[in-house]
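Limitations

Structures in this collection are predictions, not experimental determinations, and the ligand pose is part of the prediction. Treat each record accordingly. The example that follows, with NAP as the small molecule, is included so readers can see exactly what is and is not provided: the inputs are given verbatim, and the output is the predicted complex.
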Amino acid sequence: MKDFNATNKKPIIAVTMATGRQGMGVVKELSLRNEFQVRAITRDASSKRAIALSKLANVEIVEGDLLDSASLYKCFDKVYGIFGNTTPTKGLKPLVREYEIEQGKVLIDVVTDLKKKNNLKHFVFSSICKAKDPLNNEPAPGHFTSKWDIEEYLSQNKLNEITTIVRPASYFENFDGDLPGLKITDTNFPGVVRPDKVWQTIAVNDVGIWSGAIFANPKRFIGKSFNLAGEELTGRQMAELVQKVRGKGSKKVRYLMAPRILLKLFVNDIGVMADWIERAGYGADISNLKRIANEEGIEMTSLASWLKDK
Ligand SMILES: NC(=O)c1ccc[n+]([C@@H]2O[C@H](COP(=O)([O-])OP(=O)(O)OC[C@H]3O[C@@H](n4cnc5c(N)ncnc54)[C@H](OP(=O)(O)O)[C@@H]3O)[C@@H](O)[C@H]2O)c1
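Predicted complex:
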């Protein structure tokens, strides 16, 4: 681990869950921007991902745990900004609402204290996309309401004065999971939503690109929140797009929806999420995002380009 108190003049941004999918994107983007020193936080500095991140320019690895406020104080020493993320994944248990809320509470309490001491200037909190149709929000999945409850706690602590909230929709990367039935194949495009239902999605790296732009332009972004998505397509349209990207002569690609009953038996909250996407839907204003992206020089990833690069 590098000495993170080593003198450097760039403002320091600490990135929680740095070895996660969002975190890695944020660290890489901030590294490339060359405007900040990045403190990438992990529970295990010797992991392969942490070692890979440590080789990037402007990046130092520090060990910290979102359940341990003393470790966070060390990670956040003299930082200008923090990218805060939380996870409902508790070991082998995929979606534990209370586990995520516990992390959020520890994180927000430390951030509130740093703000009071006037040490912290910008907090970017990663939540999850809110509903297009709020009247149909209930019942919402527990791993969504956990993040919205943390947002509420953040507001009660008057952190909005230094905060930007980003709320990504479903990642493109979910279509390329490890489990059978959750991976794009020669003939199938997997999903959890009915084939004719529009569904907003985003490349996980774009969370990093947006966060980099947000940290670089605090005047514009502090006090704001953004539902983030790059695409709004039905499952059937996404399957057609895969076939189009593969070109002439490729096999027919069908949209394969996981049976809802199995989903609920396997991980109930994912089934509740699929119901929610169909009923309330992710509510990103994609045309407004494109306008801001254009002004900020952000190139949002299309599903077609993500499929080509994959
Ligand atoms: N999947 C989607 O489509 C989607 C869409 C929007 C939002 N989200 C939300 O995104 C969040 C997950 O982010 P992600 O996808 O970037 O994560 P991820 O790839 O699942 O990685 C989780 C990371 O969390 C770290 N971690 C776990 N427990 C921790 C703890 N107690 N303290 C500190 N770090 C801990 C782990 O790092 P170390 O082991 O190195 O410490 C790991 O790198 C979830 O809240 C999820 O609901 C997901």
